């Protein structure tokens, strides 16, 4: 069982530290998703593709901070660019406009077809929140549409139907609005229409029904970073949203720089109206950004002092401008790390090599599981994939119900004892420093995990 498997590898320090953590941090974790039973593993250091825990166990890391660390842990060039830049500017942050904000915005407008202008935030959550506010202000409509199973950050009206169970989620043609947290007021749930991913007939019906009140549709073009939108589906969705005056927001927090340097929009060759970015963009530091069409982005632009007024020292935008602020927005050190990360990814053959290694791991794992006659497929795009234990085709959230998550969870816990770090049931992200040797070690660990679990 899950409880006993840790007995094989010493996790004594981890357990003790987690016990301490629980006294002063609810659940012992700084984000609910970082928890898993019997206790999360507390890390001490990291390098390249490797994590080291407080008991001295090492792991090949495929969580990579939920995908953010595409250059691995502590890439020398990223660390150097960051520390050099801090010394060069003589501070950690200006608190004023500065050059790297423009350099990064130039980069993003060049790479992302749907981005003419950029605003920075400190997280992916803030980016989707800002995109939604911009869309609501721009269209004058109140509601948003989101797809079942898609995650856009942990705030009220998008924290619905991310992970509903079979009983709660209702009919696929018109999914229920299922809150994913206590404390979400009922009136906020009413702001959201839940749509079925990769089901264009039902989506079209719902869009036409609610077009008068829908400001925007927000979506992960690749659900959870691993279930791709079908090309026909996403093309038709773009046509419909344009026809019905609904903005289309691509949440590329996971897919940005990971499925293509220019995100999923470059793969699908579709221009969303607004794009949310995060994760890789900060090179391992907290970041987010909203980019989009000039006309929409300009809704947040103060153009005279009268667009801002000061109350008790706080600056606020007048009602005709979308208010957007953040003490740390456009943080120079974060942008230095992000720019260096992008420069590394832009080197000749870098993305191709990353995708090739990811494919290699996927193929080897598929072959292995099939040798053991376990129904299994890998599902993903670019440098992200997931292991799904079913032969049923995976096109949306509901298809995932067919998967054997019990077996997958047991294997993941075994993997933690065998030196492969994946948060149980999470997706795999690859970095540019994962080696072929890492891949082979990972496949060997999977084989041992499978044997341990099946025996
Ligand atoms: N949107 C997507 C698609 C994400 O995957 C995430 C985080 O996992 C977010 C938004 C929220 O980003 P953050 O955790 O930086 O707030």
From TrEMBL:
PROSITE patterns: AA_TRANSFER_CLASS_3. Coiled coil: none annotated. Keywords: Aminotransferase, Pyridoxal phosphate, Transferase. Pfam families: Aminotran_3 (PF00202). One of its GO terms (molecular function) is transaminase activity. Its cofactor is pyridoxal 5'-phosphate. The keyword Transferase applies. It comes from the Bacteria. Belongs to the class-III pyridoxal-phosphate-dependent aminotransferase family. This is Aspartate aminotransferase family protein. It comes from Virgibacillus tibetensis. The lineage of its organism: Bacteria, Bacillati, Bacillota, Bacilli, Bacillales.
């Amino acid at each position: 069982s899950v409880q006993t498997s840790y007995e094989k590898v010493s996790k004594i320090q981890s357990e003790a530290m987690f016990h301490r953590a629980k006294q002063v941090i609810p659940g012992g974790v700084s984000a609910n998703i970082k928890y898993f039973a019997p206790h999360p593993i507390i890390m001490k250091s990291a390098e390249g593709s490797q994590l080291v825990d407080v008991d001295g166990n090492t792991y090949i890391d495929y969580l990579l901070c939920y995908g953010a660390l595409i250059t691995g842990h502590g890439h020398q060039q990223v660390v150097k660019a960051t520390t050099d830049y801090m010394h060069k500017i003589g501070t950690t942050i200006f608190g004023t406009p500065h050059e790297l904000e423009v350099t990064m915005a130039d980069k993003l407008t060049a790479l992302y077809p749907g981005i003419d202008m950029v605003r920075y935030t400190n997280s992916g959550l803030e980016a989707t929140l800002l995109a939604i506010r911009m869309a609501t202000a721009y269209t004058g409509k109140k509601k948003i549409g989101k797809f079942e199973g898609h995650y856009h950050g942990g705030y009220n009206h998008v924290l619905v139907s991310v992970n509903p169970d079979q009983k709660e989620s209702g009919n696929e043609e018109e999914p229920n609005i299922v809150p994913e947290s206590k404390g979400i007021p009922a009136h906020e749930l009413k702001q959201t229409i839940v749509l079925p991913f990769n089901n264009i007939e039902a989506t079209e019906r719902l869009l036409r029904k609610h077009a008068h009140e829908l400001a925007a549709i927000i979506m992960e073009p690749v659900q959870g970073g691993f279930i791709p939108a079908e090309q026909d589906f996403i093309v038709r969705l773009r046509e419909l949203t344009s026809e019905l005056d609904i903005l289309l927001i691509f949440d590329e927090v996971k897919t940005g720089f990971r499925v293509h340097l220019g995100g999923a929009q470059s793969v699908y060759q579709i221009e969303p109206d607004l794009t949310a970015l995060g994760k890789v963009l900060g090179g391992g530091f907290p970041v987010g950004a909203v980019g989009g069409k000039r006309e929409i982005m300009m809704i947040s632009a103060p153009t005279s002092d009268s667009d801002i007024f000061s109350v008790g020292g706080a600056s606020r935008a007048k009602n005709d401008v979308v208010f957007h602020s953040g003490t740390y927005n456009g943080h120079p050190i974060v942008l230095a790390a992000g720019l260096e990360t992008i420069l590394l990814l832009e080197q000749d053959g870098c993305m191709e090599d990353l995708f090739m290694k990811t494919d290699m791991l996927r193929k080897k794992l598929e072959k292995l599981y099939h040798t053991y006659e376990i129904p299994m497929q890998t599902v993903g795009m670019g440098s992200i994939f997931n292991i799904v234990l079913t032969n049923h085709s995976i096109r949306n959230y509901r298809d995932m119900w067919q998967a054997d998550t019990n077996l997958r969870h047991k294997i993941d816990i075994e993997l933690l004892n065998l030196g492969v770090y994946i948060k149980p049931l999470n997706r795999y992200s690859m970095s540019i420093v994962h080696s072929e040797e890492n891949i082979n070690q990972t496949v060997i660990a999977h084989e041992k995990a499978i044997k341990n679990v099946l025996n």
